[in-house]
Amino acid sequence: MKKFKQFVLSFGVPVASLALPLLAAAQITGPASGGAPTVGITSLSAVGSSLCAITGWLFYFLIIVAVIFIIFAAFKYLTAGGEPEKVKSASHMLLYAAIAIVVGIIAKAVPGLVGTTIGASGVASSC
Fold this sequence. Notes:
This protein is mainly α. The chain contains four helices and no strands. It has a domain at 62-127.
């Protein structure tokens, strides 16, 4: 539990502080001054395009986090000093980051492949 707290403090806090500008940008409203955004979801295709936008952002977030983990694992390798336990931990971290990248790329490609296979046009094939 102590290692988890140390990890959250050393890794989670900087990542959270990098995400704060994104949260602040979410507070900006549309062109209508002082009100809700003027454009809403009005059809099923708008729901699909919104879901595509959300999954796109999640994909890029996954890739960024995986790259941060790769850098952190490289740092662990460099500071291991030949200790087998630390080297093993760093290699597991690299393996998990590589698996996350592969799963993310496959998950990003599957909707397009399925849409192309079944002959769908529109949101399903362009996501």
